[in-house]
Amino acid sequence: MTAFPRVLQGHGTENDFVVLPDPDGTVWAGDRLDAATVRRLCERRAGLGGDGVLRLVRSAHVPDAPQVLGEDLGRCEWFMDHRNADGSYAEMCGNGIRLFLHALIAEGLLDRAACAEGVLVGTRGGPRRVGAAADGGYWVDMGPAREFGRGAAELDGRSFPGLAVSMGNPHLAALTDVDVGSLDLTTPPLFDADLFPEGVNVELVNVVEPGAHIRLRVFERGVGETRSCGTGACAAAYTALRSEGVTVGTVVVDVPGGRLSVQVTPGTTILSGPAVLVSTGTLCPEWLAA
Ligand SMILES: N[C@@H](CCC[C@H](N)C(=O)O)C(=O)O
């Protein structure tokens, strides 16, 4: 391993990540970035702290990239190697992929002007196009929201019925009249394991303006409550539109960490929002070795 592995920290609407540049797969090769190391990096007191880890790596150096990208492998130079804070893998991360592109640009690995039309990035949910927007933020073509049933989350002794939606990763988006700001999300919501055998991200959603503006809180699989979730914003926007009997529209999504915009079209979903880098530095070898 390089003596001092480079590290960055940043967030998208306060969904925060430890970012590990590893373009040629040499820094974190093999099982160096195992689940225990991810958990240590994400630990907020004894580590750096984050909701997850993003490794900036070329697809050619990711052992499972051929399997998850198939014939798109050659079209995706870069791969978002994302982990949840508990060390688990997720198929997709909507806030993370904006920060991923922002960090590639900041590290000089891509030119911002060349990213205006979007760059195809490999993820474990398949390829996603992500681009640099004129306002300094980023947009992501997230693919279509796919409904796969109805379920309910049990929280605070109450049941919150919602729509099961896949954005590559699983979501339960529950519209409710209960003020989401009043909910206790310190303990995981209960859910139907038959409907969500791989676990689920749960969004509790208040409609601010029907079909146009929602507010949500989220409990993420593999993390806990986070300040934002990009895939969750897409699932919730889709659910809010469906409740109005429409399947297209643009929805402003307020999350505890800021504001996202979700455009649902007949064929896909476009997520837009900021990405912010907070710090850059190096990991101390003695901490890593401890
Ligand atoms: N915060 C992310 C989603 C990260 C993955 C999720 N916890 C899962 O396990 O599916 C986002 O912005 O989409």
Automatic annotation (TrEMBL):
Assigned GO CC terms: cytosol
Site location (Could be important to modulate the pK values of the two catalytic cysteine residues): 171, 220
PROSITE patterns assigned to the protein according to its UniProt record, in alphabetical order: DAP_EPIMERASE (PS01326)
Reactions that this protein is recorded to catalyse: (2S,6S)-2,6-diaminopimelate = meso-2,6-diaminopimelate
Pathways per UniProt: Amino-acid biosynthesis; L-lysine biosynthesis via DAP pathway; DL-2,6-diaminopimelate from LL-2,6-diaminopimelate: step 1/1
Keywords associated with the record: Amino-acid biosynthesis, Cytoplasm, Isomerase, Lysine biosynthesis
Annotated localization: Cytoplasm
SUPFAM superfamilies in alphabetical order: Diaminopimelate epimerase-like
Isomerase found in the keyword field: yes
Biological role: Catalyzes the stereoinversion of LL-2,6-diaminopimelate (L,L-DAP) to meso-diaminopimelate (meso-DAP), a precursor of L-lysine and an essential component of the bacterial peptidoglycan.
Cross-referenced NCBIfam families: DapF (TIGR00652)
Family the UniProt entry places it in: Belongs to the diaminopimelate epimerase family.
Protein name: Diaminopimelate epimerase
Organism field: Blastococcus saxobsidens (strain DD2)
